[in-house]
């Protein structure tokens, strides 16, 4: 399932898109939930201090920190 969400901070706004996969504890009767597949996370809009920025133009450590912001938001089905 495809999900999207936007992190909005005072100086940065990041829009994400990702795919989820069904996950469980691997035992019969365990709960089942959707979890974001980290390999599918895509930043499709990045604005820093009001300027559009291409995430690929940033150093790896900054890209990782921006992608980690996905943990701060609730993602919704597309």
Computed over alpha carbons, the radius of gyration is 15 Å
Structural class: mainly beta
Give the percentage of residues in beta strands. Answer: over 45%
Q: How many DSSP helices?
A: 1
What is the CA–CA distance across the termini? 8 Å
Report the order of strands and helices.
Answer: EEEEEHE
What is the domain tally? 1
- Silhouette: elongated
Main sheet properties:
6 strands, antiparallel
Oligomer: single chain
What's the rounded overall pLDDT mean?
96
Uncertain regions spanning at least 5 consecutive residues: none
User: What is the percent of helical residues?
Assistant: 10-25%
The counted number of beta strands is: 6
Can you put this structure into words, describing what you see?
- With 78 residues, this protein is mostly beta strands.
- The protein has one domain.
- The chain is built from one helix and six strands; from the N terminus they run E-E-E-E-E-H-E.
- A hairpin with a 2-residue loop joins strand 4 (42-48) and strand 5.
